[in-house]
Every structure is written in C-alpha cells, then in structure tokens.
Amino acid sequence: MKAVVVREFGAPGLARIEEVALPAPGPTEVLLRVEVVPANYVDTVVLAGRYQFLPERPFIPGKGPAGTVIAVGEAATRFNVGDRILAMVETGGYAEAVCVDEEQCYALPDSLSFDAAASISLAFDTAWFALHERGRLKAGDAVLVLGATGAVGNASVQLAKAAGAKVIAAVSSPSKSGSVVAVGADHVIDLSVPDLRNGLREQVYAVTGGNGVDVVVDPLGGDIFDAAIRAVAWRGRVVIVGFAAGRIPTLSTNYLMLKNIEVSGLQISDYRKRTPDLVRKCFEDVFDLHVRGVIKEGPSQAYPLKDYARALDDLLGRRVSGRALLKPGS
C-alpha cells in the first residue's frame, strides 16, 4: 500500500510517499481501509519533531482517519468487516490502510459521510471536552470562543450553542463575522482592534452587561490569551487547547485569585488513553447532534494523498476554507 513515511523530522514535503506492506491487525485491532484523513495543524508539529509525543522513526503520520473495516483481529468483538468507522489513531492515518485498536474506533451513523466524519475528528471531540469536561459548561453560560473560524473554534461555537450557552465568537477580521454567525454565534468580537489588551475586554463587557464570560476556549495563546483572561467573569474557566498564535503565554497567578478564575489545559490524546468510555460518550453525543441536524461539519477541501505537503502548506498559509482532507484512494 502507499503511505507517507517520515524518516527525518523537518518541513512538510521532507517525508515521501512510499510503498509499504499492508499491516495485519493484532488480536484486538481492526484493519481500516482509509477513505479520508484530515490534514491537521498538529501534523505539522509532529513532522517537524516539535510535538510532545513523538513516535520512533520511521513512522506514518496522520490522526483521525475514517473508512471501512476490511479485517478484524481474532479477539476483536466491536466491529465486523464492512463497518464504517472513525478511528482516532495518533499515527498511521496518512496511508491507504491502518490498524487500530477497536477501543479507539467509533461506528458511524449511516447518514454521516466519511468526509464529515474526518472533518469532525480532532475538532468536535476537542471542543466537546473543552466545553463539557474542562469548562463544565451549563446552559446560560457566556462562552468566548477564540479562533472561532478554525476547526476547533467552529466546533466550539456549535456545541456551545447546542448546550444553551450565549456564544461570543472572536475573529481575526470583521469580514469573517458572517461565517461564525451562520453556525450559531450570538455575538462577534474583532481581534484586529488596535488596542487588543483593552479592546477585547471592552467588546466582551458590551455584550455581557459588564459581567465577562464564564468559559473561554483558547486554541490561540499569545497576546490573545493575555487579553482574554481580562474578560473572564468571577469563577470563570479558561481552557487552553493550543498555541496557534505562536507564543506560549505566561500568567501571574495572583490574578487568578482576584476573581477565582480557573485556567486548565486540554490534551485530548490523554483522554483516549485514560478514559475511553468518556470519549465514546463524546462521539455518541456529537454523532447524535449531527444526525439531528443540530450541528454540521464545516467546509472542507480535498487533496490526494500524494499532495499531503501542499495540503499542510495551504493549512499553515490559511489558504484552506475549513478542513483539509486527504483522499488516499484518489
């Protein structure tokens, strides 16, 4: 089968498409024919050798592929050949097939396409855990979603709205307001204001009656985190899910005491390893909301597997509207 193989860490494009042996599933694994796999920002960090968990080289990158089961291990009981599944693997998705432990696989509803499932992976599960597990979201809370036009941001807006929250979406330009309003944002704030430190808080206070927000979902970090922490309400919860803005921020912890604020981090991979039943509940909830039409996957752009480097480069250059999806079969 064809796969992207990483032999040395570096920029997208250093890894090459190679012909490798079709893997055989272990006792509790299934062999998945990959129909589609998302190209994620985190993949660029893995390829560069800067991710906190790096596999031994050589390896095949790629998280969250969707496809069809073509073989099952002798002790596997959850799935049969022909089942359609989403597989939350940490590596191996950039290939025509991948072996996955059945514990990390989730059955797809008939109405959920492979493209939709791959678009959901690593976005809606991250958003679900940020809001419900780390952020302890409840109906009526005011939620500030930073980077609202990104994959996790889009998912956070939709899931927060579905939970009955008042959703405030932060965008990098007023021209992007329409896209977040279309998926449920009640208010939009502009991150391009000249004085972000004060301007973000002023905008938030204007739409919350001066109270601030109860939950912040932050995939950006940097100066945006510094500004957002000042707009948090008493007993507010800030959930850090990434640093797409580049700088990892620091914080004077006495500020947390003044307003009884909580700041927590989310590493979704740990939950898959430590609390698989909770992750299964997450996907059951997300799939159910999708089937009922309450949420929908965002826009996507498809690339053949051989163009994985272009997909990642387009992703980094913000030339992709929504998710970048790789199609091994094309």
Short synopsis of the structure:
By secondary structure, this protein is α/β, with parallel strands linked by helices. Helix content is 31%, strand content 25%.
Walk me through this protein's architecture.
With 330 residues, the chain is of the alpha/beta class. It has two domains: 2-122 and 299-327, Quinone Oxidoreductase, Chain A, domain 1; 124-268, Quinone Oxidoreductase, Chain A, domain 1 (Alpha-Beta Complex). It has helices spanning 41-48, 114-120, 124-134, 151-162, 177-182, 196-207, 222-228, 254-259, 268-274, 276-291, 308-316, and strands spanning 2-5, 16-19, 29-39, 66-72, 84-87, 97-101, 105-107, 142-145, 166-171, 187-190, 213-218, 232-240, 262-265, 300-304, 323-327. Strands 3, 4, 5, 6, 7, 14 and 15 form a seven-stranded mixed sheet that branches. Strands 10-9-8-11-12-13 form a six-stranded parallel sheet, sandwiched between helices. It is globular and about 60 Å long.
**What share of the residues lie within helices?**
25-40%
Mean of all residue-level pLDDT scores:
95
Largest sheet, in brief, is: 7 strands, mixed
CATH superfamily of the largest domain: Medium-chain alcohol dehydrogenases, catalytic domain
Catalogue the unreliable spans: none
Q: Which structural category do the helix and sheet elements fall into?
A: alpha/beta
Overall number of domains? 2
| SSE pattern | EEEHEEEEHHEHEHEHEHEHEHHEHE
Strand content bin: 15-25%
The first-level CATH class name of the largest domain: Alpha Beta
- Distance, first to last CA: 13 Å
Mass-distribution shape: globular
